[in-house]
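Slide 14.
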Amino acid sequence: MSEPFSVPVTVRGYETDVQGHLNQSVYLNYAEHARWSLLRAAGITQAELIGSGVGPVALETTIRYLRELLAGDEVEVTCGFEWGEGKTFRIRQTIRKKDGTVAAEITAVGGLMDLQERRLVANAGEVLKGLATDPSLL
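Slide 15: predicted structure.
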């Protein structure tokens, strides 16, 4: 099995809370950054999604905080899609320190919304893969 898609991120001081830990909401920003980076790497831009009449929606997100992150920590944020046959899909992500320590695990349930109908489309994975120039990343 190949390594999952990942992006590097350095924790910035202004992202930390009063205790010096990465603020809880910033984990979501890192996850979102990795998801959009993966879509871009696959050849899908936000403008192309909107132009095709669909947009991603978050339906549920769970974060497991396992180790603290501090300003200056360098991490890798992974991203992998798990496609099913229904209207929703899962996204599994890990935030890992340079030494391999897992700092957080993020699991999300998403969908792809038809922007005219305002309903989830069937087989979101197939729709996204159809828009991609490199669908193997998805």
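Speaker note: The mean pLDDT is 95.
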